[in-house]
Amino acid sequence: MENSPVALRLSTLFLRTLREDPVDAEVDSHKLLLRAGYIRRAAPGIYTWLPLGLRVLRKVENIVREEMNAIGAQEVQFPALLPKEPYEQTNRWLEYGDGLFRLQDRKGADYLLAPTHEEMFTLLVKDLYSSYKDLPLSLYQIQNKYRDEARPRAGLLRGREFIMKDSYSFDIDDAGLEASYQAHRGAYLRIFERLGLEIIPVAATAGAMGGSRSEEFLHPVAIGEDTFVRSAGGYAANVEAVTTVVPEDIDFSNAPAARVIDTPDTPTIDTLVAAANQLAPRAEGEWTAADTLKNVVLAIDLPTGERQIVVVALPGDREVDLKRIEANIGVHLAIGGEVGVEAAGEADLKKNPGLIKGYIGPGLSLDAAVLGAEASTKLLFLVDPRVVSGTSWITGANEDGKHVFGLVAGRDFTWDGTIEAAQVRAGDPAPDGSGPLEAARGIEMGHIFALGRKYAEALDLKVLDQNGKLAVVTMGSYGVGVTRAVAALAESNHDDKGLIWPSNVAPADVHVVAVGRGEEIFGAAAQLTADLEAAGLEVIYDDRPKVSPGVKFGDAELIGVPTILAVGRGLVDGVVEIKNRATGVAENVAVAEAVQYILDNR
Ligand code: ATP
Ligand code: MG
Question: Core-most of 165, 250, 377, 469, by most CB within 10 Å?
Answer without folding.
Answer: 165
